[in-house]
């Protein structure tokens, strides 16, 4: 996305604002499908939680993707966006039996990650196809908050509980059609992922009616120049070969499934914010923007680093700035970062804002959530309006005191 295009968007739609590039989303989707082109049956289910705008979902539907959902609301959003039930997998954690039954009635693929619900669901609905989420006890992820396959994780059924799992399946005569794992986000070491995959293959041998094996996702994307990323091409080559070998051993061509989120949308998104104040203290120069962790919480929550560019003065002399927000607690986007000289009213561009930015935004401090814009075929489309004061009051009930 050109600086001039982004500056025009900030002018037309105001700031702060999220901007997504449909061309980049399509590029990442095709890159992933190409990496696994040697697999006969490949299914990519976009992880809706990364960015759930309905226009973005319709773009993925057009590309031929399925979706991975973690709540009944995401599931219904997917149906509203035009996805067929058979192209939706429902992978919640810790939800009620009633929510899983509601999803099953809608005809989507159910994925269960605990023995209690598995036994209850299997007893009541033994004919409904179910995928089982396994915890391989493999640590993979860039932060403890996003590493979900280790031994202390709340996600998945422990591989050490496989005997009990098999007893439940046998007693209920359930139809197990899939096996699943997700080790965590920001996978750096392909060998660790392949090791976890072997655990999943070994587990899959216990089930004779499988249709697919879902390896989750968590592929790391670069957040700055020279940053490490998951070598998706190498992973595609190695895992495809091993998967094809397993299918021969299993005696059936299974579907290899993934549920990428960040990999598909992170680099496609940017977040634009205006500089309200440049504040010099005895030791620091602060660039204070018209946003805060209510719009971009990842640096505060995960310690993530988003590259920040001054697109109003891209060729200016670089100086050191701490970029901070307007929230009443500390909300620091960057400490002592080299950025082209910043003046008040300049527009700063935060990169990698496509994943887990708007979807984790809030009305903290009673601030409005920003607008969202999709660049599609060279034109900027407003895909979510900026909130207003009426939105803040919506659903509040005033009582007479």
TrEMBL record:
It catalyses: meso-2,6-diaminopimelate + H(+) = L-lysine + CO2. CDD domains: PLPDE_III_DapDC (cd06828). Residues 18-354 form the Orn/DAP/Arg decarboxylase 2 C-terminal domain. Pfam families: Orn_Arg_deC_N, Orn_DAP_Arg_deC. One of its GO terms (biological process) is lysine biosynthetic process via diaminopimelate. SUPFAM superfamilies: Alanine racemase C-terminal domain-like, PLP-binding barrel. Substrate binds at residues 298, 302, 329, 356. Residues 24-266 form the Orn/DAP/Arg decarboxylase 2 N-terminal domain. HAMAP family: LysA (MF_02120). Specifically catalyzes the decarboxylation of meso-diaminopimelate (meso-DAP) to L-lysine. Belongs to the Orn/Lys/Arg decarboxylase class-II family. LysA subfamily. Homodimer. This is Diaminopimelate decarboxylase. It comes from Winogradskyella psychrotolerans RS-3.
């Amino acid at each position: 996305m050109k600086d001039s295009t982004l500056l025009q968007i900030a002018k037309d739609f105001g700031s702060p604002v999220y901007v997504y590039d449909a061309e980049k989303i399509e590029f990442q989707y095709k890159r992933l499908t190409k990496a696994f082109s040697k697999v006969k049956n490949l299914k990519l289910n976009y992880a809706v939680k990364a960015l759930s705008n309905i226009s973005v979902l319709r773009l993925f539907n057009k590309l031929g993707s399925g979706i991975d959902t973690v709540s009944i609301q995401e599931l219904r959003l997917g149906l509203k966006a035009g996805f067929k039930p058979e192209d939706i997998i429902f992978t919640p954690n810790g939800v009620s039996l009633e929510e899983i039954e509601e999803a099953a009635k809608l005809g989507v693929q159910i994925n269960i990650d605990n023995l209690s619900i598995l036994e209850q669901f299997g007893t009541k609905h033994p004919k409904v196809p179910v995928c089982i989420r396994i915890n391989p006890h493999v640590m993979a992820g860039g932060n403890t908050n996003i590493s979900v396959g280790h031994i202390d994780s709340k996600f998945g059924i422990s591989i050490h509980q496989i005997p009990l799992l098999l007893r439940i399946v046998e007693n209920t005569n359930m139809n197990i059609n899939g096996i699943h794992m997700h080790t965590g986000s920001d996978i750096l070491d392909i060998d660790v992922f392949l090791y976890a995959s072997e655990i999943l293959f070994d587990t899959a041998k216990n089930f004779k009616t499988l249709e697919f094996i879902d390896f989750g996702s968590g592929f790391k994307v670069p957040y700055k120049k020279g940053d490490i990323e998951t070598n998706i091409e190498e992973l595609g080559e190695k895992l495809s070969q091993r998967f094809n070998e397993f299918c021969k051993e299993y005696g059936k061509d299974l579907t290899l499934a993934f549920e990428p989120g960040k990999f598909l949308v992170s680099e496609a998104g940017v977040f634009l914010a205006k500089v309200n104040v440049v504040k010099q203290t005895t030791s620091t120069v602060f660039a204070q923007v018209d946003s805060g962790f209510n719009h971009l919480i990842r640096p505060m929550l995960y310690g993530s680093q988003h590259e920040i560019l001054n697109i109003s003065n891209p060729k200016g002399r670089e100086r050191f700035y701490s970029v901070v927000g307007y929230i009443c607690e500390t909300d620091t986007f960057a400490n002592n970062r080299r950025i082209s000289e910043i003046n008040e009213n300049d527009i700063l561009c935060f990169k990698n804002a496509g994943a887990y930015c708007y979807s984790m935004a809030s009305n903290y401090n009673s601030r409005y959530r920003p607008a969202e814009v999709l660049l599609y075929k060279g034109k900027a489309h407003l895909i979510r309006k900026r909130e207003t004061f009426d939105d803040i009051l919506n659903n509040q009930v005033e009582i007479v005191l």
